[in-house]
Hints:
The protein has 279 residues and is an alpha/beta fold. It folds into 2 domains: 27-111, Leucine Dehydrogenase, chain A, domain 1 (Rossmann fold, 3-Layer(aba) Sandwich); 136-258, Rossmann fold, CATH 3.40.50. It contains 10 helices and 11 strands. The strands form 3 sheets. The chain has a 6-stranded parallel beta sheet. The chain has a 3-stranded parallel beta sheet with strand order 3-2-4, sandwiched between helices. Helix 1 runs parallel beside helix 10 (257-277), helix 6 (136-147) packs across helix 7 (167-176) and helix 6 (136-147) packs across helix 10. The mean pLDDT is 97. The protein binds NADPH dihydro-nicotinamide-adenine-dinucleotide phosphate.
Amino acid sequence: MSVIIDGKEVSAKVQENVKAEIKNCMIRPSVAVIQVGDNPASNSYISNKEKVCGAVGIYFRLYKFDDGTPELTIINKIKELNNDEYVNGIMVQLPLPPQYNEKRLLNTISNAKDVDGLTDINTGRFINGKKTLIPCTALAVMRVLEEYGIDVAGKDVVIVGRSRLVGRPLATLMLNNNATVTTCHSATTNLKEHTKRADILVVATGVPKLITEDMVKDGAVVIDVGINRVDGKLCGDVDFAKVEKKASYITPVPGGIGPMTVAMLLENILLCYNAKNSK
Ligand code: NDP
């Protein structure tokens, strides 16, 4: 039987710390979210972010555009928010409807307000070891490991998924912390050969129950980033019920990395706020 990592509990701790810090802020920190279209999953993520921001004292603004709004209108809104001194963080909710140029919109965000850590400049700074904003989900994985006293140094870490949002930044963070990192993806041949070797296995693919018990080493730490809806119920990328019996630690879905990602967003908003207000 494994230890089930309680992402909600760690997230609540982070939220308390952020709330305490905000109490000392002269001006209330604020974040602006740009949403295009009406994707139900995005609506749910955004309302959760709004709720958590409100609970810690971060002012939350949502700018929701109809699918079909000219891209230039959205770009102009982002530029306006870049110049608004009362906005500390800006995020574009992904995924965007396919006709929009995701990179162009993300790169319009001021690097100093890029709370998702997704502009090309911030990505480059991160890869080059400079201080910058880092994508929240990658931070969330590192923070739960740290909170549970799981050291990654010298460990074989296998990450399944290589997205800019999760897999790639996480691989960099793991390397920075002296893990030996393998990153797998859809073109990896014999995935099991890799996952079986992992001391720490992180899965972020969006493929429900991709990881079965035969793919996991006894005693491995298993971090499931995936959020999938199957038959109206949320599940991860790991077959939790079976893998739980083999793992030493495992994150549930929901209640694992999801709440931690929002917690890391709060910290990134505070980082932006403090960088601006300490000048
Ligand atoms: P992407 O679709 O951007 O990336 C998925 C990655 O998984 C790709 O690198 C893809 O490979 C790889 N992949 C897909 N199928 C397989 C397969 N059969 N075998 C091996 N690799 C595969 O997704 P995201 O990274 O944005 O998100 C991944 C999951 O994490 C989703 O379920 C998402 O909802 C969830 N998520 C959860 C968050 C949280 O807070 N918990 C935050 C962000 C995401 P390739 O590159 O070759 O296409």
